[in-house]
Amino acid sequence: MKTGMVLEGGAMRGLFTAGVLDVMMEHDIWVDGVAGVSAGAVFGCNYKSRQPGRTLRYNLAYCRDPRYASVRNLLRTGNLYSEQFCYHDIPEQLDPFDHEAFQASPVKFYVVCTDVRTGEPVYHRCTTGGEEDLRWMQASASMPLASRVVKIGPYSLLDGGIADSIPVRFLESLGYKRNILILTQPKGFEKKKSRFLPAMRAALFRYPEFLAAAADRHERYNETLSYISMLEESGAALVLRPPIPLEIGAMERDPVQLQRVYDTGRAVAEIQLERIEKFVADARAAQ
């Protein structure tokens, strides 16, 4: 029975996910397939490339560097997070992403984006970890109002969380019947309608289907949480989430806060380590 893993987004809440993944890598725990959304995609790719510590390392190194994320970037380029610095300078030179290890890994890695023309999710399997795959990861993490639309082939894309924030049903459709879900909100969280909708309507008026998806995102998100609760109760899913709200900004510059969120993820994974190992082992035994 194939085991999958879903990595929710959430900007710098994604460092919680990075902490969980690093513990899993350190204990040689590998699933068969991963679906990452937004920060879950750009941070989670280091699981397939087997690079524990990399996500925290470059975030601590560059969190205060205006080349990484800044209003200056937004005004100059339309991207809060610099495309050149984040998706070229860091992975190619400053803290190299091991695309050879990514390609060699048997773990299948999918990212979720939202097609701005249709408002529908687009799922892409990343196979090489090269420039095109990084472009898909960038698209998945391109937040409305903070990023320009990313064009790849016939697609015009933004944040995957708009269309499918927690793509557990997508993995199930591919045959992953037992899934680990790493969420970045605590149990009992309920998403509200975005307060940024008026600004999105002004900035993205050319994409009415995208705006419609953004308007009812909270309803689909909360319904998915209900579905996940059912999976959790049946034993088909293992959910790892922070015990309390992480309370960290989308563009957090304080390395102490980044470390805190990462350490929270590590602590949750270490506490749940035996359950994680058993969940994966049981699925392997059922194959």
Structure, described:
The structure is a single chain. Helix content is 47%, strand content 15%. It has 287 residues and is an alpha/beta fold. Strands 1, 2, 3, 4, 5, 6, 7 and 8 form an eight-stranded mixed beta sheet that branches. Strand 1, helix 1 and strand 2 (33-37) form a beta-alpha-beta unit. It starts with a strand and ends with a helix. The mean pLDDT is 96.
The total strand number stands at 8
Instruction: Label the overall shape.
Output: globular
Overall pLDDT score: 96
The largest sheet, given as strand count, sense and whether it forms a barrel, is: 8 strands, mixed
Strand content: 15-25%
The SSE string, one letter per element, is EHEHHHHHEEHEEHEHHHEHH
Distance between the termini: 4 Å
Percentage of residues assigned to helices: 40-55%
List keywords for this structure.
single chain, 287 residues, alpha/beta, 13 helices, globular
Brief rundown of the structure:
By secondary structure, the chain is of the alpha/beta class. It has helices at residues 14-26, 39-48, 54-62, 71-77, 83-94, 99-104, 131-140, 168-173, 197-203, 208-215, 217-234, 255-271, 273-285; strands spanning 2-7, 33-37, 108-115, 121-126, 150-152, 155-159, 176-182, 237-240.
